[in-house]
């Protein structure tokens, strides 16, 4: 993966084994159409961008569309830049106007919000662009019910030659047909959804079109606690008498309104208004004051009950926009603003005779603002975590006015304000999200971040390890999204999550009936009780590790109550509480969760993550099951290259230079020839072999044609490091004609097939066995495989001056001359032995007028040097570019005392005074040795 990112862009990016394994698996197939369903926090964005960068490096990515929730636009842009994409190649589209010239834009990566994609007028423009790759983040939002989203993604992915990546931490979510529909978008020829719902089909998708790894298996693979534990505390706050009265009156008022509306058959508009009031009034006295004031103002303006009824025609759509998945996907307004707008529109439901009750609630809210128990408890907790424990804290709230209210209170505390910097994230500073997150992460003075839920989906906040939910989230999905900002790869400490509940009617219902049941919470005792002052009267605690979770119920999308299907949304849960049916709803969730877990297990819907399988896969491609071993060897080769001047720095972030060095070696047009000499490594001849499959995947290995063995991965890097350490020299020519025999090719092919077995076997099985589930079978394809030697390494002996038995000297020289003469003839020249009359051995010429004055030296084994007398040296100096030194090495002494030359290697050095190192020793004798050669990679 290091080759995908240029120098200086890998800062802060740690590559993990499961990410390497995924990348290696998917890039062996075309087109790449997969669902990456890794658990939240496992780095799906990095995995997706790595795949895209690989395609770009191979020239297969020209135009990529990345569809994300609007709140993730800037994060995707920053991640693309961090992983090496030039800002000039990225276009972020945040408004419809920017789509007008989309067909003529030249950027490779286009990032757009799903909200824009869903609009027909924008979709039509996008469909006119020839995208070669499509990425859909949070793909679980593509459901059969989400008509506009469904239509848009279905049309964009219908071209089955396009690469398509779906990303989701919760790919199934309990709705089987939705899950299968998403798989059908990846494989457009799959037939009816009902037929696909069986274990036989699901097993075929494992590690072929569906890839999923868990936190637990990542910890096992890395053999360390990569994922820390998560501790969830529910803090029950002692209320004041005024707070008790406020919540009692509020809940009684709302429940009565819902009950009356049900009796009159006007349930929906009244229930919506009641749910909105429940959320706003329970958030903070500030939010309650603003909401009740708006209602009273509208009553004064005599907005009649009839005027509100006009909204009932599309009321279900409005409920979905505010509380359903459509909101979490994208919206043009902050949730806060939507709530206020709906309160205006539906406030006519409040009758004039109910004015006194609203006024009482407003009066009580104003009193609570003077002595807010929950706010005091929050202040105590945060001060303790930041000022005593030096932790960074994120407080989530649903509304901007509550955010402002909390911030104002913290800023009133002089001691806190002087020592702690406070940052905020909301729709008001959306364009600055990336800068704010960076400032929070890197500046130690900023320890508190206040955020609305626009920050809870996709942003990375793992520098904080304390999360505070100022209001209790009603759905497991919201809990998961918030906690997932900190409990993810890169988190070094256990994560602590605190959710505050007032000990009043309403909040206690949520704690007792929802949280304690769904999250299996129990009373916290002893030293696990956090310090939050005397305001907190009780604590409940749950713990999640990498192998289990607090919120498996996030998989539940729909339940059945009294033979009626109900979506598990925030709206339906709050409405059930107001109807006093929350117990029944929660029990249905737990029953459904049990059924889903049973179904996922029984039908084997998800791939099984096994440490052993990933280890075997890694060993096949890296030569080791440890990515850290591979990283260490990369560090060593980088340092060696820096030492030799190939690169300018030893930083591992400069690994691109090491990769470019390899690319130069393997390039036909590179500055490094295909023959390299080095005194590093075991002496002998090695071939760097490239095996290409169907023009979409290249494999490199080092092959020893004598020993018939291989080096791949970390062993290949180690060999190259030894070559660099030993110094490299490049002759002007030689008689080495690398040829892979039938046996050699068969051995190499078996080795590559062994590697490919881990990569493509699941997909090959899918191709062969899925015919019963497809409208048409996959066409038979014959693999086009090519194999070539792209570089020859000659590893020479460091024992340069070891001399043979004098009795063999003449035999060696004679054999070397024969090899040299043969070499000249084979290259179209006519050699003449002039050793008896001249101070060189051969004069060779061609019909084209080329002349060569050749000195021949022979050696046993792989010693690479030449001794020239003063006369010989003078001839070399006189003839310069016409003078050649031929070193014939790897001559062998046979059992009869003769010299065998069958394996002889001839290396030619033109103008050796220039191309070789020369040392003067003894009585005017000159020692020639290969000149060290290090290809410089230009910046």
- What is the name of the CATH class of the largest domain? Alpha Beta
* Spatial strand sequence of the major β-sheet: 10-11-9-12-13-8-15-14
- Taking pLDDT < 50 over at least 5 consecutive residues as the criterion, the unreliable ranges are 1-11, 303-313, 325-332, 652-659, 667-673, 933-939
The CATH homologous superfamily name of the largest domain equals Tandem AAA-ATPase domain
Radius of gyration in whole Å, from Cα?
Answer: 36 Å
CATH topology heading of the largest domain? Rossmann fold
Structural class: alpha/beta
Terminal CA distance reads 20 Å
What does this structure look like?
The structure is a single chain. The protein is α/β, with parallel strands linked by helices and 939 residues long. It folds into 5 domains: 31-213, Rossmann fold (3-Layer(aba) Sandwich), CATH 3.40.50.10810; 230-236 and 371-546, P-loop containing nucleotide triphosphate hydrolases (Rossmann fold, 3-Layer(aba) Sandwich); 241-367, no CATH class; 614-773 and 781-795, no CATH class; 806-930, Trna Endonuclease, Chain: A, domain 1 (3-Layer(aba) Sandwich). It has 34 helices and 33 strands. It has an 8-stranded mixed beta sheet, with helices on both faces. A 7-stranded parallel beta sheet has the order 3-4-2-5-6-1-7, with helices on both faces. Strand 29 and strand 30 (899-900) form a beta hairpin. The longest helix has 28 residues, at 742-769. It is elongated, with a radius of gyration of 36 Å. Residues 1-11, 303-313, 325-332, 652-659, 667-673 and 933-939 have low confidence and may be disordered.
